[in-house]
């Protein structure tokens, strides 16, 4: 699957929280943000969230 890249400016404290959460769930920060966005979009649409792909299928982007 082709992925869209974009720049995201984020508060350092929020980044730290997401980074810690991602580590707890064995995801990269990028994978965690994508997971959270997918959940929010599905909730907004009113449908069940589809399962996230295993972290091995997600590109690891660390800063």
Percent helix, as a range, is 40-55%
Number of strands: 0
Mean pLDDT: 85
The dominant shape is globular
* Rg (CA only): 12 Å
Q: Report the structural category.
A: mainly alpha
Contiguous helical run count: 2
Largest sheet: none
Please report which band the strand proportion falls in: under 5%, 5-15%, 15-25%, 25-35%, 35-45% or over 45%: under 5%
Low-confidence stretches: none
Order of helices and strands: HH
Distance between the termini: 23 Å
Question: What can you tell me about this protein's structure?
Answer:
The chain is mostly helical and 63 residues long. It has a domain of 33 residues. Helix content is 48%, strand content 0%. It has two helices and no strands. α1 crosses α2. It is globular, with a radius of gyration of 12 Å. The chain starts with 11 loop residues before the first helix and ends in an 18-residue tail after the last helix. 6% of the residues are buried. The model has no long low-confidence stretch (mean pLDDT 85).
């Amino acid at each position: 699957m082709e992925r869209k890249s974009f720049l995201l400016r984020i508060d350092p404290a929020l980044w730290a929280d997401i980074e810690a959460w991602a580590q707890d769930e064995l995801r990269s920060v990028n994978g965690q943000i994508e997971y959270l966005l997918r959940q929010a979009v599905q909730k907004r649409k009113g449908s069940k969230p589809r399962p996230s792909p295993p972290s091995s299928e997600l590109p690891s982007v660390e800063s």
